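Problem: given the chain below (243 residues), write out its structure.
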Amino acid sequence: MSVPSLAEGAVLRAAQVGQDASLDELVPGHRLLIIAPHPDDETLGCGMALAAACAKGREVAILLLTDGEGSHPNSREFDRESRVALRQAEFEAALSFLVPERSVPVVRARLPDGRSKARDAAQIIDRLLGDPCIARADAIWSTWAHDPHCDHRTAAILARMLADRTGANLWSFPVWGRFGERPVPENLRVFSDGLHRDAKRLAMQAYASQMTNLIEDDPDGFVMPSALFDHFATHPEIFFHER
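Solution.
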């Protein structure tokens, strides 16, 4: 996946005139499941809304599709096990900013980072539905099916399958698909909550392996461009109502 250096694209233009979504629309019941392809997508894509949902008493659970080990695959200083442990610690730190007084159940699917496929969703769905945090969700949020990353697309496919099986309300949030030119669905909505904007920025900063040059020995490793960091930290969150 090619990472842009500037925050611009068709989805962002549409979001400028997008209709606001209320929390009651995004979570029309009491229980919310967020499907994140990697530790940090829950913060980048919907951190403010996640924090707002918890603050309003919703029961929130997070399904991590991968452990995020693929961001710096050539690092010798941080081998695979070290990267998994680092991303997990960052994820927990991020949640401590977003949800400082709540414990959020986390389910880990442990699919291979950067190599998940659509068929993986079909292979794990029955196991996942054995978890009441997943089976009883009233609403599901996941990354968008048109995000240009295989793990984000797998998350969207899994979310659709789970919603079809459970009857949950389904929303998607574009992370990388918001940049560049592509068709924009008419069901775009935006969410912003000034009470939790600072918490989202702090949660993003907790992902030092992704936002800084903490891992220096992999020239092909991912580092968030500064312009995109500022964008995600300040822009209203974008959702598409899928069902």
